[in-house]
Design a protein that fits this description.
By secondary structure, this protein is an all-alpha fold. The chain has one domain (2-339). The protein has helices at 2-17, 19-43, 52-67, 74-113, 123-164, 171-205, 213-223, 228-259, 265-312, 317-324, 329-339. α2 (19-43) crosses α9 (265-312).
Length: 341
Protein backbone atom coordinates (compact mmCIF):
# COMPACT_ATOMS: atom_id res chain seq x y z
CA UNK A 1 0.00 0.00 0.00
CA UNK A 2 2.88 2.37 0.78
CA UNK A 3 4.33 1.72 -2.67
CA UNK A 4 1.00 2.57 -4.30
CA UNK A 5 0.73 5.83 -2.36
CA UNK A 6 4.27 6.84 -3.33
CA UNK A 7 3.63 6.14 -7.01
CA UNK A 8 0.36 8.11 -6.86
CA UNK A 9 2.10 11.03 -5.17
CA UNK A 10 4.86 10.92 -7.78
CA UNK A 11 2.19 10.91 -10.51
CA UNK A 12 0.40 13.93 -9.06
CA UNK A 13 3.75 15.73 -8.75
CA UNK A 14 4.58 14.97 -12.41
CA UNK A 15 1.12 16.15 -13.46
CA UNK A 16 1.51 19.43 -11.57
CA UNK A 17 5.02 19.93 -12.97
CA UNK A 18 3.57 19.85 -16.50
CA UNK A 19 0.20 21.31 -15.55
CA UNK A 20 0.30 24.05 -18.19
CA UNK A 21 0.82 21.40 -20.91
CA UNK A 22 -1.55 18.74 -19.60
CA UNK A 23 -4.44 20.99 -18.56
CA UNK A 24 -4.47 22.88 -21.85
CA UNK A 25 -3.13 20.99 -24.86
CA UNK A 26 -3.53 17.37 -23.68
CA UNK A 27 -6.94 17.91 -22.08
CA UNK A 28 -8.30 19.77 -25.10
CA UNK A 29 -7.06 17.01 -27.41
CA UNK A 30 -8.90 14.42 -25.28
CA UNK A 31 -12.15 16.41 -25.04
CA UNK A 32 -13.78 15.01 -28.23
CA UNK A 33 -13.08 11.50 -26.98
CA UNK A 34 -14.51 12.34 -23.55
CA UNK A 35 -17.60 13.86 -25.14
CA UNK A 36 -18.12 10.77 -27.30
CA UNK A 37 -17.86 8.45 -24.29
CA UNK A 38 -20.31 10.40 -22.13
CA UNK A 39 -22.76 11.12 -24.95
CA UNK A 40 -22.76 7.51 -26.16
CA UNK A 41 -23.68 6.28 -22.68
CA UNK A 42 -26.52 8.80 -22.60
CA UNK A 43 -27.79 8.01 -26.10
CA UNK A 44 -27.67 4.20 -26.02
CA UNK A 45 -30.47 3.58 -23.45
CA UNK A 46 -32.86 5.74 -25.49
CA UNK A 47 -32.33 3.79 -28.71
CA UNK A 48 -35.34 2.11 -30.28
CA UNK A 49 -35.81 -1.65 -30.63
CA UNK A 50 -34.16 -1.58 -34.06
CA UNK A 51 -31.01 0.04 -32.72
CA UNK A 52 -27.47 -1.22 -32.62
CA UNK A 53 -27.72 -1.90 -28.89
CA UNK A 54 -30.78 -4.13 -29.26
CA UNK A 55 -29.22 -6.01 -32.18
CA UNK A 56 -26.01 -6.75 -30.28
CA UNK A 57 -28.00 -7.69 -27.16
CA UNK A 58 -30.10 -10.17 -29.14
CA UNK A 59 -27.05 -11.74 -30.80
CA UNK A 60 -25.20 -12.19 -27.50
CA UNK A 61 -28.34 -13.63 -25.89
CA UNK A 62 -28.70 -16.12 -28.75
CA UNK A 63 -25.01 -17.00 -28.45
CA UNK A 64 -25.32 -17.67 -24.70
CA UNK A 65 -28.42 -19.79 -25.30
CA UNK A 66 -26.67 -21.83 -28.00
CA UNK A 67 -23.68 -22.34 -25.68
CA UNK A 68 -25.92 -23.90 -23.06
CA UNK A 69 -25.62 -21.23 -20.38
CA UNK A 70 -28.62 -21.32 -18.01
CA UNK A 71 -31.21 -18.73 -18.98
CA UNK A 72 -32.24 -18.37 -15.33
CA UNK A 73 -28.77 -17.19 -14.28
CA UNK A 74 -28.87 -13.54 -13.27
CA UNK A 75 -25.12 -13.30 -13.85
CA UNK A 76 -25.41 -14.02 -17.58
CA UNK A 77 -28.38 -11.65 -17.90
CA UNK A 78 -26.36 -8.80 -16.40
CA UNK A 79 -23.27 -9.80 -18.37
CA UNK A 80 -25.28 -9.84 -21.60
CA UNK A 81 -26.58 -6.34 -20.96
CA UNK A 82 -23.18 -4.91 -19.99
CA UNK A 83 -21.44 -6.55 -22.93
CA UNK A 84 -24.01 -5.14 -25.34
CA UNK A 85 -23.60 -1.65 -23.89
CA UNK A 86 -19.80 -1.86 -23.95
CA UNK A 87 -19.63 -3.14 -27.53
CA UNK A 88 -22.16 -0.57 -28.77
CA UNK A 89 -20.36 2.28 -27.02
CA UNK A 90 -16.99 1.09 -28.35
CA UNK A 91 -18.31 1.01 -31.92
CA UNK A 92 -19.79 4.50 -31.65
CA UNK A 93 -16.65 6.00 -30.09
CA UNK A 94 -14.10 4.07 -32.17
CA UNK A 95 -13.22 6.98 -34.53
CA UNK A 96 -12.55 9.26 -31.54
CA UNK A 97 -10.58 6.55 -29.75
CA UNK A 98 -8.26 5.90 -32.67
CA UNK A 99 -7.59 9.62 -33.14
CA UNK A 100 -8.04 12.00 -30.20
CA UNK A 101 -7.58 9.43 -27.42
CA UNK A 102 -4.37 7.98 -28.82
CA UNK A 103 -3.00 11.40 -29.78
CA UNK A 104 -3.59 12.58 -26.21
CA UNK A 105 -1.78 9.54 -24.82
CA UNK A 106 1.08 10.04 -27.27
CA UNK A 107 1.41 13.69 -26.24
CA UNK A 108 1.49 12.87 -22.51
CA UNK A 109 3.93 9.98 -22.97
CA UNK A 110 6.27 12.11 -25.07
CA UNK A 111 6.12 14.88 -22.46
CA UNK A 112 7.13 12.47 -19.69
CA UNK A 113 9.63 10.44 -21.71
CA UNK A 114 12.30 13.08 -21.17
CA UNK A 115 11.19 15.14 -18.13
CA UNK A 116 14.28 17.38 -18.32
CA UNK A 117 12.86 19.05 -21.42
CA UNK A 118 10.47 21.78 -20.26
CA UNK A 119 9.25 22.73 -23.74
CA UNK A 120 6.27 21.16 -25.44
CA UNK A 121 6.98 18.03 -27.48
CA UNK A 122 7.35 18.59 -31.18
CA UNK A 123 4.80 17.48 -33.74
CA UNK A 124 7.18 14.95 -35.28
CA UNK A 125 7.93 13.28 -31.94
CA UNK A 126 4.23 13.08 -31.06
CA UNK A 127 3.45 11.61 -34.49
CA UNK A 128 6.23 9.04 -34.06
CA UNK A 129 4.77 8.09 -30.70
CA UNK A 130 1.28 7.94 -32.19
CA UNK A 131 2.32 5.38 -34.82
CA UNK A 132 3.77 3.14 -32.11
CA UNK A 133 0.85 3.58 -29.75
CA UNK A 134 -1.64 3.01 -32.58
CA UNK A 135 -0.14 -0.36 -33.57
CA UNK A 136 0.09 -1.40 -29.92
CA UNK A 137 -3.54 -0.42 -29.35
CA UNK A 138 -4.68 -2.65 -32.19
CA UNK A 139 -2.81 -5.63 -30.72
CA UNK A 140 -4.16 -4.78 -27.28
CA UNK A 141 -7.70 -4.88 -28.66
CA UNK A 142 -7.02 -8.34 -30.07
CA UNK A 143 -5.66 -9.42 -26.68
CA UNK A 144 -8.79 -8.17 -24.91
CA UNK A 145 -11.01 -10.07 -27.36
CA UNK A 146 -8.90 -13.20 -26.84
CA UNK A 147 -9.19 -12.86 -23.06
CA UNK A 148 -12.98 -12.56 -23.27
CA UNK A 149 -13.18 -15.55 -25.61
CA UNK A 150 -10.97 -17.63 -23.30
CA UNK A 151 -13.11 -16.89 -20.24
CA UNK A 152 -16.33 -17.67 -22.10
CA UNK A 153 -14.84 -20.92 -23.38
CA UNK A 154 -13.87 -21.94 -19.84
CA UNK A 155 -17.36 -21.07 -18.56
CA UNK A 156 -18.88 -23.05 -21.43
CA UNK A 157 -16.81 -26.12 -20.53
CA UNK A 158 -17.57 -25.73 -16.82
CA UNK A 159 -21.32 -25.34 -17.19
CA UNK A 160 -21.74 -28.11 -19.76
CA UNK A 161 -19.46 -30.53 -17.89
CA UNK A 162 -21.26 -30.03 -14.58
CA UNK A 163 -24.64 -30.21 -16.32
CA UNK A 164 -23.72 -33.54 -17.92
CA UNK A 165 -22.97 -34.91 -14.44
CA UNK A 166 -26.25 -33.56 -13.10
CA UNK A 167 -24.67 -31.06 -10.72
CA UNK A 168 -26.60 -28.00 -11.89
CA UNK A 169 -30.09 -29.05 -10.90
CA UNK A 170 -30.29 -26.81 -7.83
CA UNK A 171 -30.47 -23.03 -7.86
CA UNK A 172 -27.63 -22.74 -5.33
CA UNK A 173 -25.18 -24.61 -7.55
CA UNK A 174 -26.01 -22.38 -10.53
CA UNK A 175 -25.63 -19.29 -8.33
CA UNK A 176 -22.29 -20.49 -6.94
CA UNK A 177 -20.88 -21.26 -10.39
CA UNK A 178 -22.15 -17.94 -11.74
CA UNK A 179 -20.48 -16.07 -8.90
CA UNK A 180 -17.24 -17.98 -9.54
CA UNK A 181 -17.48 -17.11 -13.21
CA UNK A 182 -18.01 -13.42 -12.36
CA UNK A 183 -14.89 -13.41 -10.17
CA UNK A 184 -12.85 -15.20 -12.84
CA UNK A 185 -14.03 -12.86 -15.58
CA UNK A 186 -13.27 -9.77 -13.48
CA UNK A 187 -9.76 -10.95 -12.61
CA UNK A 188 -8.84 -11.89 -16.18
CA UNK A 189 -10.29 -8.72 -17.69
CA UNK A 190 -8.65 -6.45 -15.08
CA UNK A 191 -5.21 -8.02 -15.59
CA UNK A 192 -5.61 -7.83 -19.38
CA UNK A 193 -6.50 -4.15 -19.28
CA UNK A 194 -3.54 -3.41 -17.01
CA UNK A 195 -1.14 -5.18 -19.36
CA UNK A 196 -2.62 -3.36 -22.37
CA UNK A 197 -2.30 0.06 -20.69
CA UNK A 198 1.29 -0.66 -19.69
CA UNK A 199 2.01 -1.87 -23.22
CA UNK A 200 0.76 1.42 -24.68
CA UNK A 201 3.06 3.37 -22.36
CA UNK A 202 5.97 1.04 -23.08
CA UNK A 203 5.59 1.53 -26.84
CA UNK A 204 5.88 5.29 -26.44
CA UNK A 205 8.56 5.37 -23.75
CA UNK A 206 11.10 2.99 -25.29
CA UNK A 207 12.80 3.90 -28.53
CA UNK A 208 15.61 1.33 -28.48
CA UNK A 209 13.46 -1.61 -29.60
CA UNK A 210 11.73 -1.90 -32.94
CA UNK A 211 8.93 -4.18 -33.96
CA UNK A 212 5.20 -4.62 -33.98
CA UNK A 213 2.76 -3.69 -31.27
CA UNK A 214 2.64 -7.23 -29.91
CA UNK A 215 6.29 -6.89 -28.76
CA UNK A 216 5.35 -4.00 -26.49
CA UNK A 217 2.46 -6.00 -25.06
CA UNK A 218 4.81 -8.91 -24.34
CA UNK A 219 7.24 -6.42 -22.82
CA UNK A 220 4.48 -5.22 -20.50
CA UNK A 221 3.77 -8.81 -19.42
CA UNK A 222 7.41 -9.14 -18.37
CA UNK A 223 7.55 -5.81 -16.55
CA UNK A 224 4.38 -6.35 -14.56
CA UNK A 225 5.45 -9.64 -12.99
CA UNK A 226 4.84 -9.50 -9.25
CA UNK A 227 3.33 -6.02 -9.43
CA UNK A 228 -0.25 -6.80 -10.41
CA UNK A 229 -1.66 -5.84 -7.01
CA UNK A 230 0.07 -2.46 -7.20
CA UNK A 231 -1.28 -1.88 -10.71
CA UNK A 232 -4.82 -2.75 -9.58
CA UNK A 233 -4.54 -0.42 -6.59
CA UNK A 234 -3.44 2.40 -8.91
CA UNK A 235 -6.21 1.76 -11.43
CA UNK A 236 -9.08 1.53 -8.94
CA UNK A 237 -9.25 5.18 -7.77
CA UNK A 238 -8.94 6.48 -11.32
CA UNK A 239 -11.75 4.24 -12.56
CA UNK A 240 -13.90 5.29 -9.61
CA UNK A 241 -13.27 8.94 -10.44
CA UNK A 242 -14.22 8.38 -14.08
CA UNK A 243 -17.37 6.52 -13.00
CA UNK A 244 -18.25 9.42 -10.70
CA UNK A 245 -17.87 11.89 -13.58
CA UNK A 246 -20.06 9.67 -15.78
CA UNK A 247 -22.69 9.59 -13.01
CA UNK A 248 -22.42 13.39 -12.67
CA UNK A 249 -23.06 13.76 -16.41
CA UNK A 250 -26.11 11.52 -16.19
CA UNK A 251 -27.43 13.40 -13.15
CA UNK A 252 -26.75 16.97 -14.25
CA UNK A 253 -27.02 16.92 -18.05
CA UNK A 254 -29.14 13.97 -19.13
CA UNK A 255 -31.59 14.45 -16.29
CA UNK A 256 -31.89 18.18 -17.02
CA UNK A 257 -32.50 17.57 -20.72
CA UNK A 258 -35.19 14.95 -20.11
CA UNK A 259 -36.90 16.94 -17.34
CA UNK A 260 -37.08 20.30 -19.11
CA UNK A 261 -38.49 19.75 -22.58
CA UNK A 262 -39.55 23.40 -22.86
CA UNK A 263 -36.36 25.00 -21.59
CA UNK A 264 -35.40 28.57 -22.34
CA UNK A 265 -32.37 29.67 -24.31
CA UNK A 266 -30.61 30.79 -21.12
CA UNK A 267 -31.02 27.43 -19.38
CA UNK A 268 -29.91 25.60 -22.53
CA UNK A 269 -26.71 27.63 -22.72
CA UNK A 270 -25.98 26.87 -19.07
CA UNK A 271 -26.50 23.16 -19.74
CA UNK A 272 -24.06 23.33 -22.65
CA UNK A 273 -21.45 25.11 -20.52
CA UNK A 274 -21.89 22.59 -17.71
CA UNK A 275 -21.56 19.71 -20.19
CA UNK A 276 -18.33 21.20 -21.53
CA UNK A 277 -17.00 21.47 -17.98
CA UNK A 278 -17.80 17.80 -17.33
CA UNK A 279 -16.13 16.83 -20.63
CA UNK A 280 -13.05 18.76 -19.49
CA UNK A 281 -13.02 17.00 -16.10
CA UNK A 282 -13.20 13.63 -17.81
CA UNK A 283 -10.35 14.65 -20.12
CA UNK A 284 -8.24 15.60 -17.11
CA UNK A 285 -8.82 12.13 -15.68
CA UNK A 286 -7.75 10.57 -18.99
CA UNK A 287 -4.53 12.60 -18.87
CA UNK A 288 -3.93 11.73 -15.20
CA UNK A 289 -4.50 8.04 -15.93
CA UNK A 290 -1.80 8.20 -18.62
CA UNK A 291 0.56 9.98 -16.21
CA UNK A 292 0.02 7.29 -13.56
CA UNK A 293 0.75 4.56 -16.12
CA UNK A 294 3.94 6.36 -17.18
CA UNK A 295 5.17 6.66 -13.59
CA UNK A 296 4.28 3.03 -12.92
CA UNK A 297 6.22 2.05 -16.04
CA UNK A 298 9.28 3.95 -14.80
CA UNK A 299 8.79 2.18 -11.47
CA UNK A 300 8.88 -1.21 -13.17
CA UNK A 301 11.88 -0.23 -15.28
CA UNK A 302 13.83 0.95 -12.22
CA UNK A 303 12.96 -2.31 -10.44
CA UNK A 304 14.08 -4.40 -13.41
CA UNK A 305 17.32 -2.46 -13.90
CA UNK A 306 18.19 -2.55 -10.22
CA UNK A 307 17.52 -6.27 -10.08
CA UNK A 308 19.85 -6.81 -13.03
CA UNK A 309 22.58 -4.77 -11.34
CA UNK A 310 22.13 -6.58 -8.04
CA UNK A 311 22.39 -9.90 -9.88
CA UNK A 312 25.71 -8.97 -11.47
CA UNK A 313 27.07 -7.00 -8.51
CA UNK A 314 27.12 -3.64 -10.27
CA UNK A 315 27.00 -0.50 -8.15
CA UNK A 316 25.05 2.48 -9.49
CA UNK A 317 24.36 5.28 -7.01
CA UNK A 318 22.12 7.17 -9.44
CA UNK A 319 19.89 4.16 -9.87
CA UNK A 320 19.67 3.70 -6.11
CA UNK A 321 18.64 7.36 -5.75
CA UNK A 322 15.96 6.84 -8.39
CA UNK A 323 14.77 3.72 -6.57
CA UNK A 324 14.36 5.71 -3.36
CA UNK A 325 11.87 7.95 -5.17
CA UNK A 326 9.52 5.01 -5.49
CA UNK A 327 9.98 2.86 -2.41
CA UNK A 328 12.47 1.75 0.24
CA UNK A 329 15.64 0.30 -1.22
CA UNK A 330 15.76 -2.76 1.07
CA UNK A 331 12.29 -3.95 0.06
CA UNK A 332 13.16 -3.22 -3.58
CA UNK A 333 16.30 -5.31 -3.30
CA UNK A 334 14.37 -8.24 -1.83
CA UNK A 335 11.69 -8.14 -4.51
CA UNK A 336 14.23 -7.77 -7.29
CA UNK A 337 16.26 -10.76 -6.13
CA UNK A 338 13.12 -12.90 -5.79
CA UNK A 339 12.13 -12.28 -9.41
CA UNK A 340 15.47 -13.03 -10.96
CA UNK A 341 15.97 -16.57 -12.34
Amino acid sequence: MAETIKIMRKSVFSFLQNYHHFSSTAALIAMPFSASILLSQAILPSFSSSSLLFTIYSRIQALFAAAGFPASSEFFAILNEKLAQTISSSILTLPFTLTFFLVCKSYVIESLRNPKLKSRPSFSSVFDNFSRVFSTYLWSSILILAANATVFALLFLAFNSLESFGLLKSTNSVLFLSASGAVLYSIVLANTLIVCNLGLVSSGMERSCAGGGYLWTLRACVLIRGRTSTALALTLPLNLAMAAIEALFQYRIVRSLTASSSSTTTSSSWIVMEALLIFYLYSIMVVLDTVVNCVFYKNCKAMEELGRQLCYGIKDDDLEDDAYDYYVYDSLKTLALEQLP
